[in-house]
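Onboarding guide, step 5: your first structure request.
Type a short instruction followed by the sequence, for example:

Predict the 3D structure of this protein.
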Amino acid sequence: MKRYIYYIATFAAALFAVSCSEMMNDAREVDVVEKIEVAYKVDINSFTAADGNEVAAPEEWYDQIKVTFNNFAEGIETVVGVDKQGVAKVELIPGIYNIMVSTDTKPEYLHRKYIINGLAQNVPLTEDITTIGKDNVVKVNPSMDSPLCFRELFYAGSEGWYFRDQFYEVYNNGDEVVYLDHFCLAHLVPEYPTTALPEWPAEDGVGKYAYAVTLWQIQGDGDDYPLAPGESIVFAQEAANHIEISGGTSVVNSITDIDFECWTGNQQRINPDIPDVPYVFYSGYIVTMMWLTSVDGSALALYQPRQNLEFGSDYWQEGVTTSAQVGSSGQQYARIPIADIYDAVECIPTPNDMDMKRIPGFLDSGAASVNGYYNGKSVMRKIDSYREDGTPIFQDTNNSTADFEVSDTPTIRRYGVKRPAWGGKVTE
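The system replies with structure tokens like these:
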């Protein structure tokens, strides 16, 4: 018996030695991936400053810039700075990259802070590129730091395919009162996450507009809806006790915390105590009996057209306030000037779906995700600091990848955020 065991052990050892030898030979035969040298220039476009004049970016702004090269297929991220000419130089393995421009701080000009963001998406880098030309430049449009921001977004729905508990919270992150009259919640195009991004007419220009499939608006006389620093409002699909309605799969009881409800046609579901936000624009077919954004994640913006809008009115004119996609059937979408957008957030199905980004990088150079759908999770902003009254100031760098984190329990007005006195009430 001992001799039998000895023979088996000897045979196994021989097999192991042969296997290891073959593995070593295979390893020597594997091609070594040669890195390429890449240079990319950051070009900060001239911008309209707080005094109304168009100016060039101060040279010192370039000292704060970092450029991130993301190869999502390989899971590799490389971060470098830029030289005095705004050029980032790096060695990379060949592949498809998202090239993101950002800063850790908000540079100032004339006592106003600006956000510096840019994105070149799905760029094939397969060979050395060391000479700067039109194909290796990321153009950046500085945007003034906005007081309003999306604080928490619950879009993914809850277990049991329950989606009526969606809500979006908007927060005053600044230091002055903002009047919300005329503000729109814009659902941007494409409506659902996709890599098939639309192309817009050349006359629209590059980076001048965002495009929406739907707009809901807070309508007032200009001073009906003040929002003080540290206060927030909440838009919801339905103001209800969703814990009870869903049979316990949802964790949201929004029956008393919602300020604006977005039902438009189903009288059996409308909460009469909460004011409705009307549709003022939609493109194509829309289900008017319910309000719903994609549980995979939508791109949303806060838009201020400075007047009350009306669905179907003369305000919506082709080539002026609406635009059709190139090669489309002529379906019109709301054309929103970038200067009228206070905040925009991109949400995608998973963190690996950055190739589905829909909006310009200077509005949001990253994207937030709960990594799935119908999982009862939300995305919420990280806290940067606190005011003297204890209300938080949230991180807002126009990079949702960095600014947001996932919450397992969606919560309205967490961290001591306040509600305006008029919240949930119709202004008389």
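Each response can be followed by summary notes, for example: Residues 41 and 87 are 4 Å apart (CA to CA).
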